[in-house]
Amino acid sequence: GETSRKENAAAVLESVSGYAGEFVVTTAGPDLESVLAAKGAGAVEYSKQTQLPVLHMDIVGGTSNLALIENGKIRRTGCLNVGGRLLKFENGKVSYVSPVLQGLTDLRPGQYPAEDQVEAVAQLLTQGLEMAAGLRPKTELLDKLQTGEAATAWEPVENGCILSFSGGVADCIEKQAASDFGDIGPQLGQAIREGLLCRGAYRLGNETIRATVIGAGCHSAQLSGSTVFVRDVNLPLKNLPVAHFTRQEQDSTQLSGLIRQRLQILEGEKTVLALPGYEKPDYRNLQSLAHRILEGLQDRDVYICLEADMAKALGQCLCLAGGKRGYLCIDRVRLQEGSFLDIGAPIGPALPVVVKTLVLNNQ
């Protein structure tokens, strides 16, 4: 939202992420943030349990992150410039007007706003959300409220669905704000409550203001298995591209060639090879797999992620056969093609990992 647009956002991110490698930090773009909020608010699980389509709206300070969910699967995401901090007040005067509101209000910093002027802004922002949900005919207002950071522009939902809300503004939908937040959030929450969005079936998230944080912590962060193998690798590692291999490819005599092909496509010096592994590997399996992996990697460092619990055994075979280079072998983490992996410093015998997956809209 608004925070990521500040001129010092990149510098703050770099500073925080440099702390001793004890945790992994990244910025979530609007598409990923929509996914995390929908999961953290329980909207994905609700759709999965009820088999109902759900449109989740995470309405926060500067933006509203949207996720359309069908049968527990997120089908598309989007983001609108609708949020509680677009208009701020101090001592009764307007202290900030977001550039997003240009042409939508005559209010300027330093003015004492009339109550109906603030309500008019809240009504316009609410109408934008109603258009996104397909509850109001689309006008140029929806186009004006689209964010430039989202992968694609949001198109109104064509079929009816359950509406779900999270974010700070969601706390103001069913009750009056207990205190003055110095922004338009309370008025926006009430406009949503009194408008079209709440006339049909809707739900508030299990988490509202913490939805994205809960989604990031519970649905994107994992711990590897405890039998990891790490040698001559400096942690943390960030944004490692993933080359995924099926069981058939893993067992193929052509695995070395397939590895070289994927590395050429990904063009990353450090690439994670994601393999299913073996539930009950014998020494012959391990030696064969290690040999084919090393032949494919040639002189590169080794980064392996396994689904089966065999990282230490495979790591030792790789190290014995591969000579002096870096080795990282983790297990009990399932990856897919198109993912990126962040790996933090050890927590006891395990490694904290964050799996980041590109979210693509269905065409």
Layout of secondary structure:
Elements: H1 9-17, H2 30-40, H3 43-50, E1 54-59, E2 64-70, E3 73-80, E4 87-90, E5 93-97, H4 115-132, H5 140-145, E6 162-166, H6 185-194, E7 202-204, H7 211-219, E8 221-223, E9 229-231, E10 237-244, H8 247-251, H9 255-266, E11 272-275, H10 283-297, E12 302-306, H11 311-322, E13 327-331, E14 339-343, E15 352-357
Parallel strand pairs: 1-6, 6-7, 10-11, 11-12, 12-13
Antiparallel strand pairs: 1-2, 2-3, 4-5, 8-15, 9-13, 10-14, 14-15
Helix pairs in contact: 2-7, 4-6, 9-10, 10-11
Describe the structure.
α4 (115-132) crosses α6 (185-194) and α9 crosses α10. The longest helix has 18 residues, at 115-132. The chain is α/β, with parallel strands linked by helices. The strands form three sheets. Strands 8-15-14-10-11-12-13-9 form an eight-stranded mixed sheet. The protein has eleven helices and 15 strands. A hairpin with a 2-residue loop joins β2 and β3 (73-80). It has helices at residues 9-17, 30-40, 43-50, 115-132, 140-145, 185-194, 211-219, 247-251, 255-266, 283-297, 311-322, and strands at residues 54-59, 64-70, 73-80, 87-90, 93-97, 162-166, 202-204, 221-223, 229-231, 237-244, 272-275, 302-306, 327-331, 339-343, 352-357.
